Amino acid sequence: MPFTLPAISRRRFLGSTLAAGTLLAGQRLFGAVEAAATRPAVDPHRFALLSDVHIFKEKDKVAREVNMFDNLVRVSGEVVALSPAPTAVLLSGDCAFHAGTSEDYVTFLEAMQPIRAAGLPVHLTLGNHDHRQRFLKAIPADDARQKVVEHRVALMVKAERANWFILDSLDEDSMAKGEVGEEQIAWLGKALDAESSKPAIVMVHHQPDEGKIVTGLQDTKELMNVLLPRKHVKALFFGHTHDWHRDVREGMHLVNLPPVAYVFTPGKPNGWVDAHLTENGAKLELHTLNPKNGAAGEKVELAWR
């Protein structure tokens, strides 16, 4: 379920953090606050791509030897320090650690405040570890949401060189698998046709999965039947697997975003991706939380079909 977090003023940010005591508790947000104090020029073609942040209500929670809150605060600081600034931050789901409690989302919003204080909108969707109704209560409705099917919200983010279509793949009946659903796929086809004069990039939480044992999108075939014939659809970005890799299917790029939180396989990178849209493609740069990881600073160029 995609949402947009509007930017907040730095004065409001500082007031809320002081009131909550977070600025004084360990100083973990201080560097991000300072970075948010200056607002460089915005590059309309630049986007910060995040996935799988897995924030728990307690900031000192550690999973797989990783403190998730610290990771997201650090990434927030790196994003707001970019110059020129990205035009938006896109987050492909799993905002919460396990079951998406109300307290999880309070802590998640706190970690995201430096980005919002820097004037950057955040467009995000939910993953299998999120909870739809509790998230709705934590984040009030905004005008960017488009209700296309019952209990689901899809979002189109217009940019100069491409339109982003962010999908809701949260299946409340499954702990791991995801589903876009017939009605949302039908909406996507119509929306893509209405915006066929510009490249389209699709983002969803779950990975395409047509294996015998499905752990990703259960309706991958149906989604691909919409995306692949429409040649202006250039790429599909997703998370869920806590991996970083790329593939190509009929000229359409498949990009698995790394987790901000923890990895499942030792040695894999966690971090975020700096994406710059060009006239005929995109340039991606991986920012790893471990600078000694073999993939640190990896740059990838995607050429549009």
Describe the structure.
With 305 residues, the chain is of the alpha/beta class. 25% of the residues lie in helices and 27% in strands. It contains seven helices and 16 strands. It has helices at 10-20, 30-36, 68-80, 102-117, 132-138, 182-194, 220-227, and strands spanning 3-5, 42-50, 62-63, 66-67, 85-91, 122-124, 146-149, 152-158, 163-166, 200-203, 233-238, 245-249, 252-256, 271-277, 281-288, 299-303. The protein has a seven-stranded mixed β-sheet with strand order 1-6-5-2-14-15-16. It has a seven-stranded mixed β-sheet with strand order 7-8-9-10-11-13-12. The chain has a two-stranded antiparallel sheet with strand order 3-4. β14 and β15 form a beta hairpin. The model is unreliable at 17-26 (pLDDT under 50).
